[in-house]
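hiii, so i know i said id send this last week but things got crazy w the move. better late than never?? heres the sequnce for the chain we talked about at the cafe, plus the structure i predicted for it. fair warning i was half asleep when i ran it
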Amino acid sequence: MRQTCVSKAKRIVVKVGSAVITTDTGRLDRARLAAIVEEIASLKARDYQVMLVTSGAIAAGLERLGLEERPTAIPDLQAAASVGQGLLIQQYTGLFEKHEIHVGQVLLTQYDITHREHYVNAANTFEKLLDFGVVPIVNENDTTVVEEIKFGDNDTLAALVTNLSKADALVIMSDIDGLHTADPRKHDGTQLLSEVAEITPAIESLAGGAGTAFGSGGMVTKLNAAKIVTLAGAGMFLIDGRADAALVAAMNGDDVGTFFAPRGRKMTSRKAWIAFGTVAKGTITVDDGAKEAMIAKGKSLLPAGVTSVAGLFTDGDMVEITDAAGELIARGLVDFAAEDLAKIKGMTSEEIHKSHKELYGREVVHRDCLVILK
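okay and structure toks below
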């Protein structure tokens, strides 16, 4: 699967973590930045379209402000990001100019992903930048974002950018060389997993804890990113971003890092937004018959298969769909308000027509607005 993904990839997202481009004291590692830009330039020369999701703005701000450690208060982080974002893009701009490559800065918040109009606008912006041969440089808008609309880590942001831009692969450049059978920083004799065909509970159990002092992610966020990307039909590489030419090696199909294989066909941009770009307003639990109909037969969800309703949603909102055991099996845009669906859950069409004629003739979630996640 690794070779197949590499041979088909034309558009890729490269995510660079803070631990890769900062020193042990949290300052920007300009030599590493230059090396990464060199690799991206070499891929551009091979006609790859490349988008760069980069951490480091806060680290750059800490350096300029003379702070010895990363603050924890949101206003302090926002101030550091405000100072550092300009410094970081300045560094990238100068380095890419040496290769005659233009860059464009794109700052996103979760609001831009969860609201459909903003999502489409962002996708159109990426498309046009790539048409112009520009390398989009993406980061969370740390200067204005608040906790309620934070991505929380750039691994998630990179995965969502991969989806909305219809990229073929995501390459996460980290301070670890891939997914191991245990945390190699804590245990001896661990083995690197070259390829992961499916992210099972056993694979998830391998995830370690937090990353470095100057980063915000860990293996958990990387596996979550892999879930988002692979379920949408793209591949993901997790490689050591500190190793020389690791990015080029990954795109050559060499056995570096861990490759997460895509699952099934690529989703449309709209389906990817339904699956991963929105915040669910409630949960609908279904019986085994409805579960089978949706997963195996591609059917819409009907009221007869609904066993319980939770949350305060209205028609058009995003909901999560779980089975009797509480396992998440799908997400979709619901066609009923929660209070109305609660009245007719478990009813056949004939029963609805008799008792609630005003609610008759509608699916709970139409299959065109439904994404199976299991």
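btw The chain is about 40% helix and 20% strand. thought thatd interest u
miss u guys!!
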